[in-house]
Amino acid sequence: MLQMLIKRKKGRTHNEDRNLALLLATTAGILNAMALGAFGIFPSHMSGNTSQISSEVTNSDLSDLSFLAAIILAFVVGSMASRMLVISGVRNNIRTIFSIILLLEGIALAIMSLFEKFYYSHANNREVIVFLGFLMGLHNSTSTQLSNGRVRSTHITGTLTDAGIALGSLLCVSLRRDPSRDLKAHSNQLFTHLVTIVSFLGGGICGLLLFKIFGFNSMIAMGVFLTLVAVLSITATVYQVRRRGLSTC
């Protein structure tokens, strides 16, 4: 299962993408809901944040306007950082680059959560939310690149659209006299999107409950979990490469 974080030369299977969705979409949903419980805002809800900007413009509230713009910019920068790291990793033949990005995200999340646990203050809430926006951009971009766009861990609007397209294609193919292989292909794609959606929703429910019970300890645990998964993936990959006598990654 840890191999889902490694992008190999051969094509990815739908099972690998579904496992990826179970991991990254669930953790994205958990973190998104925890942020709502802690700060009262979704750091990955870019559609809502962008729409709200228009309302702040009409209200002439420059403080809230700049805050929303900062969240959106942070999300974009996080996505950009993930892309640049992936390009660098591919050029240098680092097969574990996606796991390394997840490792960095987990460590950053754990450190931020530790800080909030001991020094939580309304005065620095906005800075923390912007940083969470960056992490969510990193998270979503990583899953999108790894799955070739089939798994967008935080972008549920896009995933629902993709699911609708897959369902429409599936229905059209089903009406043919000879659906052949297209039926299975569209069914697999639809199932992958549904797993992503359910994972994010389930993660959101768990995230709110966990934060209500454990507070920032739950966010620390999430950072530790992501770090542990990344370390295990890197370790397993390096072990397999060395056992096969290939050059180390």
Describe, in plain words, how this protein is organized in 3D:
- By secondary structure, the protein is an all-alpha fold.
- The chain has helices spanning 14-39, 46-59, 62-91, 97-119, 125-146, 156-174, 182-214, 216-243.
- The mean pLDDT is 86.
Radius of gyration of CA atoms, rounded to a whole number: 19 Å
Q: Bin the strand percentage.
A: under 5%
Question: What pattern of helices and strands is seen along the backbone?
Answer: HHHHHHHH
Low-confidence runs (pLDDT<50, min 5 residues)? Answer: none
Distance between the termini: 19 Å
State the major sheet: none
Q: Would you report the number of β strands?
A: 0
Structural class: mainly alpha
What is the percent of helical residues? over 70%
Helical stretch tally: 8
Return the average pLDDT rounded to an integer: 86
Shape: globular
Overall tally of domains: 1
Give a quick precis of the structure.
With 249 residues, the protein is mainly α.
Labels describing this entry:
single chain, 249 residues, mainly alpha, 8 helices, 78% helix, globular
Q: What is the topological layout?
A:
Blueprint: H1 14-39, H2 46-59, H3 62-91, H4 97-119, H5 125-146, H6 156-174, H7 182-214, H8 216-243
Organism: Pantoea coffeiphila
Keywords: Membrane, Transmembrane, Transmembrane helix
Pfam families: DUF1275 (PF06912)
